[in-house]
Amino acid sequence: xxxxxxxxxxxxxxxxxxxxxxxxxxxxxxxxxxxxxxxxxxxxxxxxxxxxxxxxxxxxxxxxxxxxxxxxxxxxxxxxxxxxxxxxxxxxxxxxxxxxxxxxxxxxxxxxxxxxxxxxxxxxxxxxxxxxxxxxxxxxxxxxxxxxxxxxxxxxxxxxxxxxxxxxxxxxxxxxxxxxxxxxxxxxxxxxxxxxxxxxxxxxxxxxxxxxxxxxxxxxxxxxxxxxxxxxxxxxxxxxxxxxxxxxxxxxxxxxxxxxxxxxxxxxxxxxxxxxxxxxxxxxxxxxxxxxxxxxxxxxxxxxxxxxxxx
Length: 311
Description:
Layout lengths: L2 H26 L21 H14 L4 E6 L5 E7 L7 E5 L6 H4 L1 H10 L2 E5 L18 H16 L5 E6 L1 H8 L8 E7 L5 H11 L4 H16 L8 H6 L5 E6 L7 H10 L4 E6 L7 H4 L1 H15 L2
Parallel strand pairs: 3-4, 3-5, 5-6, 6-7, 7-8
Antiparallel strand pairs: 1-2, 2-4
Helix pairs in contact: 1-8, 2-4, 7-8
């Protein structure tokens, strides 16, 4: 092959590689602005059978609630939006974070029911690059952890340090709050982490295996994409490392049949946590379905945890 052909082939290969990086990056990390204020929150399409009717009732009840629109600007300049739901005006405030490509009321309708029953006010932000919040890059907790700290500051500014805060999240939302767990103010009384993963690398490698992509290649592509297109280091956050320095009590929850985020990831987070901790596992529950599968056990665990930490 002549020199010109070699150079042409290399150029084509480079262009193809760059194209692959761009496509993989924007398919994994970028999020189009497809949620508007006049569009109802999406439902979970992975709930079926006997759980579908129960989920439908929870989702409809959550969507019928009247929340106050709130907004803040993140430390890196992104406008973040959310809703504040007042159920008592007293006691602790829960700050709940939804999961990857999720929505607060889609992912948190079970927790919203619990909050209403307990008379606990709830702030539910749209995570960056989701819903009404700005940004186009989802970073698996690397930057979202700082958004969590900014929302905590919002609550401090609004209610003062005398009012306790409970952090809560599901899936990526759980990992978001856990990654921030080593920098929490003293009025954060506890954390409820439902099916959180350990690190961005761990979950990307796991998903790569599920789609039959070599896990090393999958993470290498994702890490390079994040660096090139988002300026993000996917290795810059770890839930276990933060939990070593955590002082707030933590309730870990995970479905034993979760194939998307294996329950062993919550076990690893639990083992790393040096703060007071509890762990509820739910037999038969797939990803983020523990409340649907065993509402009684879930409710009991949350109520007992809050009675110990937030009263």
